[in-house]
Amino acid sequence: MAAMGLVIAALAVVLVPWLWAAVLHLVWRPYAAARAFARQGVRGPPYRFFFGNSGEAKAMLAAAGGEVLDRSSHDIVPRVMPHYRAWASRHGKVFVSWSGATPTLCAGSYDMVKRVLSDKTGLYAKPDPGPTILSLLGMGLVFTEGEDWARHRRVVHPAFAMDKLKSMAGTMAACAGEVVRDWEARVATAPGGKATVEVGQQFTELTADVISHTAFGSSFRRGKEVFMAQRELQGIAFAAINSVRFPGMGYVPTKANLRRWRLERKVRGTLMDIIRERVAAAGEARGYGSDLLGLMLEANASAGAAGGKKAAAIMSMDEIIDECKTFFFAGHDTTAHLLTWAMFLLGTHPEWQHRLREEVLRECGGSAAAAAPPINGDALGKLKLVTMVLYETLRLYGAVSMIGRVAASDADLCGVKVPRGTALAIPIAMLHRDEEVWGADAGEFNPLRFRDGVGRAAVIPGALLAFSGGPRSCIGQDFAMLEAKATLALILRRFEFEVAAEYVHAPADFLTLQPLRGLPIVLKLLDP
């Protein structure tokens, strides 16, 4: 009995502190935080023990999954963020909801957004992405913080200078030209001179080709191997995000995790081989190459050779691999969907398609009756209407519907006291439809709002958040815009097109926004 008493006493010593910590985390702190927010006039759906509001959110998302929008409607929020729309309608633009026991403050005002995104102190940090997302994107510029982020950006930034990007316009156009020739062949043999093509998958393959060539140059075939592995990793990541998650599950040897680890090793091994070849070539005075990887390796080597403080800025091999993962995924996935949604909008607005075609033929040359000259970066820079349409596409159908941050310490956010550890949600899709900022036609397709530039398109400067904002804005935005312009220019001067009758307008969030069932487009060759 004495021994049993000792065992019970030992268990009590272990369990009582654990149970007390659990009560603090799951009961006392959530209710204390909710009361603190309520005293400031910030309310939201009530906290539910352990699960927070996940049950309510999943129920609304499931119900919205069966909804189909009219083609003339660009209000994607009821489909991809129905819970945020519902909570905002009840509690206002700024409200608090619960991800498990963690409060999530919806920063639904542009004043809050500007404060969060312009912060340089680390007060509003990127959330921990977890092992599944890291396997896809790596610990690159997207997730690094503080001095690590500054060090990475100093090395990566030279590769994305506009003069370097313009030199890649020919490669971008050459890859897009292969797709255009394939479409020409399909239309030429199709009944009635019209062919239906599912462009979403075509653009995914195209942008993977572009990033493989521009990032890895002569090693592009192995770059495509990385693309195939990352596509599978994206599926694994999406499944993980939409499943019930418990702490540490990303490290348990489940079937999905074992497959993820194999894919990670394949991606790392392939990238490592490419990098070693470049380093060896540089050692033989053949240079690192003029592609994105080569430019990054050259900048890294230059920092190391400079010595002193600059030498401390160099990146390790693992960090370079992570940056390759980041710009490879971001460089093809987001651009593919930008092109897809631009085709949808132009296919449903023929008057704008006609205006863009006229501009392309005027600035880039080529006509239905003559061989089209090659596309170049300077000509693409003159496509003002195309740029306006792409910005409006990003406003209505941006790749990311939400940006997340975490309060690293107690903060005062535009008068709202935010406790340390609070998640911050920036609802981009809702902000891009705010009539107080974008005007009464905020829900409509109107590229002319960008006629005076992206900074003056709304009441508030910098209201377009498709590439984030502040010092952490997307470093690859010029790359994405240049590639999208080159591709659209080639398509517009060879085809007229419309959205096929069988298209179902149901935008869906699979880490990035994309048509649920693809985008079939009816193509017709312009008169020769």
UniProtKB/TrEMBL annotation:
One example of a Gene Ontology biological process annotation: lipid metabolic process
Gene3D superfamilies (UniProt xref): Cytochrome P450
Keywords carried by this UniProt record: Heme, Iron, Membrane, Metal-binding, Monooxygenase, Oxidoreductase, Transmembrane, Transmembrane helix
Protein location: Membrane
KW Transport (keyword) present: no
GO terms of molecular function: metal ion binding; monooxygenase activity
InterPro entries documented for this protein: Cyt_P450, Cyt_P450_CS, Cyt_P450_E_grp-I, Cyt_P450_sf, Cytochrome_P450_Monooxygen
SUPFAM superfamilies attached to this UniProt entry: Cytochrome P450 (SSF48264)
Cofactor: heme
Heme listed as a keyword: yes
Any one GO cellular component localisation term in the record: membrane
Binding-site list for heme: C474
Family to which the UniProt record says this protein belongs: Belongs to the cytochrome P450 family.
Name recorded for this polypeptide: Cytochrome P450
Organism per entry: Urochloa decumbens
Lineage: Eukaryota, Viridiplantae, Streptophyta, Embryophyta, Tracheophyta
